[in-house]
Amino acid sequence: RRRVSASLASSPEFLEQSAAKAKSYRALLGAVLQASAAKSYLDKQIALSAKLCELNPEAATSWNYRKRATLANHNSENTPIGELPADLRVSVAEAELTVSEAALKRNPKSYCAWYHRRWVLDTWIGKDFAVKPFDAVLERECTLTEQFLSLDPRNFHGWGYRRYLAEFVGETPETELAFSRRLIERDLSNYSAWHHRSAVLPACHGSAAIGGGDAESESRWRGTMGAMSAAATHIPADTLLEEQDLWFQAAVTEPADQAAWVYARWVSGLGSRLEDPEARARVREKDVKQAREVLALEPDATWALVHLANALAAPLDASEADRE
Asked: For 69-95, how does the pLDDT look when each residue is reduced to its tens digit (9 = 90+)?
């Protein structure tokens, strides 16, 4: 949204333009509300609702109108969606996703626009996501979501939709771990990518805590956040040592950047809870070593000093770490 100077905002020309826009918007909103109340789903009315969704992405009534319109116009006999022609389902899905995309360009954090995308996939694609021509729709969604997150790495709606897509297509936590690494390597300050990694890593090693086996794969992914504390003790020491290498590369590059150090503290916390005393010592020793290496390069690196102090003060007894 463009900012307008106080002098321009008070000018007669600007006020006149604003009044004209408000009048036009009220007329548009009224037309959509009238069509919704009458349950009329003509093409010209649906086009007006698309324009309203783009102008005001939080116009919930317009989004709900579109949901009813697609079902009324393309499935008036209430046939199970899965039995409708594939080309029709793809056409409807792509049309609705296009409207949502236009709304998100105006407001990338619109609840209504993001929810509409979920509704489209759940309703019009469903379990056929891996079958042609539906797979192309999902592939584009994954690509588009990654583009959204590249433009705005802290858009929690985008991250939520990414996790929804991962669950929708049965993606593995390992794939999401690789995705988080790509974003981190692209931007070391991407707090959300670091957080996503901390959410996914326990799920990659949480089968022992959750039950394990292929039959549990869906619940492993869906319960990632809830299973973090239970799964954390099942993350092997070698994995934690690899994660230390990752945050160290970021810390050496940008010692003053807090993002990698927050993740480093999280990894250290997992290390202090390892059951094997030797494994705990290995993680702690590497913490101390790497913090000192950063300080050798940047003696005034505050986060390195904090991390070193925490590492030296970390309890060697796992039970003691749990009490903390």
From this structure: 999 999 888 899 999 999 999 999 999
